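Fold these two proteins, one after the other.
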Amino acid sequence: MRFLADENFPRRVVESLRDAGHDVLWVGNDYPGTSDKKVLERAEAEGRILLTLDRDFWQIALQRPERMRNGGVVLIRVHPATTANIEKLIHRVMATGASLIGQVALVTRWGVDIVSAGRASPSDTR
């Protein structure tokens, strides 16, 4: 899979995903200081799933004026946010087999909730 890890995402998890063969960019290295909105737009433009611990992305993705078509968001909510706990939840969402393109996934110890990212355009309702 193609991921864009937010700058708050642990480097060790990014490296673990890379070691597993995933294409992962990390905002901390590749786009430091980029605003949340621009990070989400970059994920959409590059066809990447944004990995984040920042719940602001949930709201930004859902309030987009257009539905996401190329990217998506995986919001990990776990305490404590240790590398081991985050990795378990990343594997949980990937094990669902759900397409994350155009979706926002909230992943917790209790499960995975997936909703469409952005508002439907008139052409989506035909």
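Now the second one:
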Amino acid sequence: MKLLVTGGAGFIGLAVVRLAVQRGHQVVNLDALTYAANLANLAPVADSPLYAFVEADIRNREALVAAFARHQPNIVLHLAAESHVDRSIDG
């Protein structure tokens, strides 16, 4: 199975990416690397032949088309979101 995970460098996404690779799945991590992303947390799988990283924003149609054409995933897990929960309680 080949997964494309959006937001794979975020808090939840990176846990999903690491677990999927550890279980033998091919994973394409598509992330815009905004303030919540942390590629360092993906170090355990970064060199795996099962892992690929694409820096792109899901709002960029051309980047998405290119990622789908190149990697041809079977499943998409959409975890990209900027909820700004850490700033939602201000004031």
